[in-house]
């Protein structure tokens, strides 16, 4: 898996958009960008993934730069329940059975009332 | 999204005993499952990868005889911590790969807290 780098922590005011950046400059052509979050004492939760087009679902939007070397996860209206550690991961969409997923240190997002 | 369930969510065991943690994919078949360990304020550390019907592949530094992984069916994998010691106390998390409509997405269980006393 390509490595990713994320800021260790960010604050966001409740109700405002939270923009979480991720650099993945060594991403390969067949690798997707996945985002997960981990709320304290729980297993990671899948948020969204994308290849090169921007993606949106009920949880978030994913903006991937044209060169695919970085991306931004956007939580449009952050709530206190969005306080968590957010992980950006790159991996192939279609891979062999042993394609493992390794985690970096992620970004700890603190939503402030 | 797909659902992965772990059991038990919390377990306390005596030093020297063994404890089993189950991981089930509830609404999809998981040919591949992963086991992680997480210590407080640290990221998830991959322990091993298992494919249904074959032996698990362990990460460097993880003792395969201590952390026994069985993936006997497409919906169930188990992690057995043998001869547990207090330093094995940790948060254990499983994940499963769904090759269905979501296209190879990995989903995680709720995690299991193990305390060895």
Could you provide a short overview of the structure?
With 113 residues, chain A is mainly β. Chain A is 0% helix and 46% strand. Chain B has strands at residues 4-7, 10-13, 19-25, 32-38, 45-51, 57-58, 67-73, 76-81, 90-98, 105-108, 112-116.
Characterization of this structure:
- The complex is a heterodimer of chains A (113) and B (117).
- By secondary structure, chain A is mostly beta strands.
- Chain A has no helices and nine strands.
- Chain A has strands spanning 9-13, 18-23, 31-38, 45-50, 55-56, 61-64, 70-75, 84-92, 107-112.
- In chain A, strand 6 and strand 7 (70-75) form a beta hairpin.
- The model of chain A has no long low-confidence stretch (mean pLDDT 91).
- With 117 residues, chain B is mainly beta.
- Helix content of chain B is 0%, strand content 53%.
- Chain B contains no helices and eleven strands.
- Chain B has strands spanning 4-7, 10-13, 19-25, 32-38, 45-51, 57-58, 67-73, 76-81, 90-98, 105-108, 112-116.
- In chain B, the strands form two sheets. In chain B, strands 2, 4, 5, 6, 9, 10 and 11 form a seven-stranded mixed beta sheet that branches. A four-stranded antiparallel beta sheet of chain B has the order 1-3-8-7, with no helix packed on it.
- Chain B starts with a strand and ends with a strand.
- The A-B interface holds A 34, 36, 38, 41-46, 49, 87, 92-95, 97-106 and B 1, 4, 6, 31-32, 34, 36, 43-46, 49, 51, 57, 91, 93, 95, 97, 103-111, 113.
